[in-house]
Design goal:
The protein is mainly beta and about 325 residues long. Helix content is about 0%, strand content about 45%. A hairpin with a 4-residue loop joins strand 11 and strand 12. The model has no long low-confidence stretch (mean pLDDT about 100).
Length: about 325
């Protein structure tokens, strides 16, 4: 089946395109070129029909104005950079402070807030998006050519990210889907399981302190399925990075989430060392007659550790000539 392509809107005088991928199992995924945002992801359910499992807007205009990275990519450096600065090879670089004095998701014009160029490939049922970020954009050194390819096979959506930089520079890109597998406006009662025995301790403004601690005895212990409620049924807030077990079987998913009625299960595979677990604790978005509030969606942002540029003992996020960035993520919902 040919990939559908249509103009979805315009941004800074350029057309924003929407690509529709359809698989043999009836899954439909709509991706727009602005931020490479997965706008809609419809999955057949046993009770009949299809359920949209991601948060998004019906029209384009709400995206630049309202979107908290709904479905988009985030980078050049996703998550948080403390003090909105970092030092690399003896040079201090200043990046925009766009959230409580820190840089969040690459700044106000990061990868999730610019328009990419998309090319469909019917033979592989994939769309490849490209974007060239100039030297100094959002304060980051070096010109970087980014590609993001989404491929849909059956119920599995694969994301392959690559980046080629002309000088040493930090890169950490995440997919920022807001999922809700159920039929209510909260994700607190989904069950979550993540293969992570440690987490990066959080300090002020949710920036890692640098300490890596065991999850045992904390709310970050998701090694066995649990909801996002405490023993008394109260909501538990999540917005932090867990350290995925390095010895885990790569053929097994790093994370599994199941809808409250068990109608759908999400499985995620990644080659990244970390996973940001977020349950929309900061969400307060009203658009198109809908409200997306606290706990309306969950994010599983497979990533390198936040603020790695200021924590040299974290796995390095520095790439450059002869050392290209590659990142793969598979998400299956059935």
């Amino acid at each position: 089946m040919a990939i559908g392509v249509e103009q979805f809107g315009s941004f800074s005088g350029e057309p924003v395109e929407q690509f529709k991928l359809v698989s043999a199992t009836g899954v439909e995924v709509d991706i727009i070129s602005w931020g490479v945002a997965v706008r809609s992801w419809r999955v057949p359910v046993a009770s009949g029909g299809k359920r949209d499992v991601v948060l998004g807007f019906q029209g384009f205009d709400a995206y630049p104005e309202k979107s908290p990275h709904f479905g988009s990519l985030a980078g050049r450096v996703a998550n948080r950079i403390s003090g909105a600065s970092f030092t690399l090879d003896g040079v201090t670089h200043h990046t925009p402070a766009n959230w409580n004095g820190i840089t969040l998701h690459g700044g106000p014009e990061g990868l999730g807030r610019v328009n990419w160029q998309g090319t469909a490939d019917d033979a592989t049922n994939s769309v490849t998006f490209t974007y060239s970020s100039p030297d100094g954009h959002m304060g980051f050194p070096g010109k970087v050519d980014f590609t993001a390819r989404y491929t849909l096979v059956g119920n599995r959506l694969n994301l392959l990210l690559t980046a080629k930089a002309d000088t040493r520079t930090p890169i950490n890109i995440v997919q920022h889907q807001y999922f809700n597998l159920g039929t209510t406006d909260t994700v607190l009662d989904h069950t979550y399981q993540v293969a992570a025995s440690a987490y990066t301790e959080l300090g002020e403004n949710l920036v890692p302190t640098g300490a890596i601690l065991p999850v045992k005895g904390t709310d970050w212990d998701l090694r066995q399925p649990r909801t996002m409620r405490d023993a008394d049924g109260n909501p538990v807030d999540y917005d932090g990075n867990v350290v995925l077990d390095t010895g885990r079987d790569p053929s097994l998913p790093a994370a599994i989430v199941t809808a409250p009625d068990k109608s759908l299960t999400l499985k995620l595979w990644t080659d990244r060392p970390g996973l940001q677990v977020y349950n929309s604790v900061w969400s307060d978005v009203s658009a198109e007659g809908r409200h997306f509030g606290r706990y309306s969606g969950f994010c599983l942002e497979d990533q390198d550790f936040p603020d790695a540029v200021n924590n040299p003992h974290f796995p390095s996020t520095i790439y450059g000539p002869g050392h290209d960035y590659t990142h793969t993520c598979d998400i299956e919902i059935a």
